[in-house]
Amino acid sequence: MANVSDVIHGIVRFGTVLLMAVLALAWRAEPAAADEPSDEPTYVTFVEADQFEYRARKGNDAFGWEAQGWVGGDYDKVWFKTRGEDVVNGGATDAELQLLYSRTVSAFWDVQAGARYDVKPNPSRGYAVLGVQGLAPYFFEVDAAAFVSDEGDVSARLEAEYDLLITQRLIAKPSVEVNVALQEVEELGLGSGVTEVEAELRLRYEIVREVAPYVGVSWETKVGPTADMARRNGQDVDDVAFVAGLRAWF
Amino acid sequence: MKGFLFIGLAVWAATASAWAGEYNLVIDQTTVDITGRERTAVTINGAVPGPALRWREGEEVTLHVTNRLDEPTSIHWHGVIVPNSMDGVPGISFEHIHPGGTFTYRFTVKQSGTYWYHSHSGLQEQSGMYSPLLIDPAKPEPFRYDREYVVMLSDWTDEHPDRVLAKLKKQSGYYNFHKPTVVDFFRDIGKKGWRETLSDRLAWGRMRMDPTDIADVTGYTYTFLINGQPPEANWTALFKPGERVRLRFINAASMTYFDLRIPGLKMEVVQADGQDTEPVAVDEFRIAVSETYDVIVAPQEDRAYTIFAEAMDRSGYARGTLAPRTGIEAPIPAMRPRPVRTMADMGMAEGAHGMASKSPAQEKETTMPEMDHDGPGDMGAMPGMDHGAMNQEPGHAMPGMAESTEPPTVMHGPDTHGKGNSMVAMMPRSRLAEPGAGLEHTGTRVLAYTDLRAREPGYDRRPPEREIELHLTGNMDRYIWGFNGKKYSESEPIPMRYGERLRVVLVNDTMMEHPLHLHGMWMELENGNGEHNPRKFTINVKPGERLSFLMTADALGAWPFHCHLGYHMAAGMMAHAVVSEHGAEAH
Ligand SMILES: [Cu+2]
Predict the structure, then answer these.
(1) What's the rounded Cα separation, in Å, for the pair B25 and B129?
(2) Where are the beta strands (DSSP E) in A88-188?
(3) Is the pTM of this model over 0.95?
(4) What is the distance in angstroms between the Cα of B453 and the nearest Cα belonging to chain A?
(5) Is B43 helix (H, G, I), strand (E, B) or coil?
(6) By the number of CB atoms within 10 A of the CB, which of A45, B63, B83, B241 ranks highest?
(7) What spacing in Å lies between the alpha carbon of A244 and ligand 1's midpoint?
(8) What is the ipTM score, two decimals?
(9) Cα–ligand 1 centroid distance for B514 (angstroms)
């Protein structure tokens, strides 16, 4: 299966180049000048590479990314979200891409629906997505989504993060992520119930608002039946990584 | 600084008789260098600001405006009562001025005073398209002066305004570099204890509001100008000691409120928005975006005086000099502490009405600068503090409300104005007597709206037949602004019957100031002076404030009513009134 793995590596690397191209384009794009003294048209393009980093961990260092963005008006947008990891010494590589329609339903919340595609060496999979994203009280950025795979498996993910300003430019960002599966998915190594919990802390310095290098630490653990499955397969249950990267948005 | 930008008081000479002037204005792109970097400005006759027009009351003016841009443009005569088709608002009063085209404005001038004119297309005004407009009265003015100067304030950014707006949409706090930090948190604990500090933070966090949000666009990108000149260029006006000097202040900034003072001089305010007011001597006044104030100063000493205009958020200042001769200057004062938003700005009751428990010392204060007091901390104890609770229908009986002798405080109704609005002022109240955020404890005499008393009584003494209530709303986080939760593109026209006498009640449900400007008709601010209520073209509405004005719908046609903060208007904070013979029946 080495060929397939190479192909996927290729796709992931191509995807990274593509992402950078999109970032460059967004940097250049200007919203159309409004002629009328009104709020139309104000279509804005937003691309944010929240994580673009090197992950140093025992045995399998990796390059990882998490990015999202949107094109649209005040209440209706098309979102994309992508995350993934490219292990440096070959081995497992995964990438996820979501394309969503997003509609503002209240002052702080958007409902999002669309598709997710995971590129993984074992196996690739498509999902339908329904989620909410927004700003919770106390300034927590929340993204919660449910996924139904093309095999009929149901899972969910809850992410929350917070910008803690140490100074105006030095910002600590703790984040947590909880993954849940409704049923066991043998091929993906998922047991039912809470599958994985991730807690991360990144400390960035905003040179300008848009560009911020950072360092951080990431701790990930498999939980419950998922952890048992990992142990049976001789895999690590916990994973700690030290990360360094660049956050950028345009 | 290029020489051609120096427009102290360029008088565009009328070519015809005294009673019929003809003027040519050319709109073009011009390279300017305001910050040390060359940028393209949108200019009127090649300069920022454009030429000061000087008309006479009664004059029939003809203005040929030629558009040399590659996009449409327009000119609006700010504060000037003109026939609807001459008002210059694209899509409302006319189409626009096409690229390469010329539009001729023609009307008779029926007023006098200090005004200005600017583009009403897109964000061209921010790019430099603004000019002073002075109208000499037919009758002598009720005050005396020896010389006069226009002092036009503005804010300049090297960024393209469309990019500024896009940034605000992506990250509304982009330009704020005074957000609450961990460092501040520990400093506050030292000052007022951890319990109060924590409850402050939690109260604001619960509402998802930032108490340091004073200005959406700040000195991070802005250079503040007097007559097109940055502070270092030190625009200077000459006087002879003993002279009375009239200064015509115009705030042509897109987003910046200025606090104006001339250390060492009292300023006698004689006009506001071009209208004669009973003179009032002050040390300082705040000029909202798009307002004009005429003041007279009488420097006696043979020395320089600094004209100091601090941005309300203290992120910078504009500065000029009054001097007996060129080349001398006076010290530049330090900027005062930045204001922070308080519970009053959130439309919360403060101590009064039995709403919150407060010490008597705090009762005396109308606002809470620096939040030294328990301001936001109160919130946890009050019902309806978090947004979820704000959505609930408020209770009708507020303990102690009936006995209140303060101006009527009307509780906000159940409508929270939808997704275009992220908070409501639960207890909006009159704040006309307050000088404004950051000016409460200057120890000096600061002008308040209640100081403005018209010299002449209003011409229409009828009581209002009808009341219109508009809520100023916004979703700070998404950078959407509007009225009653609706952006302009989502709004319905406000019908008015020709000749109708109206009261318009404004409730500010946001924590920002909004300078509201009505086209075509005067607003008589109900500030307690009865027939002598001042008439204005722009009324500043403070955060959490409820105020009202009277108006007579004496001009047929469609008239914009909008926030004059350029990016608020561009983000939807505009409505329009339609005055017709039938009024609401037509709809
Ligand atoms: Cu506004």
Answers:
(1) 11
(2) 93-104, 109-119, 125-136, 140-149, 154-161, 164-165, 170-181
(3) no
(4) 33
(5) strand
(6) B63
(7) 41
(8) 0.87
(9) 4
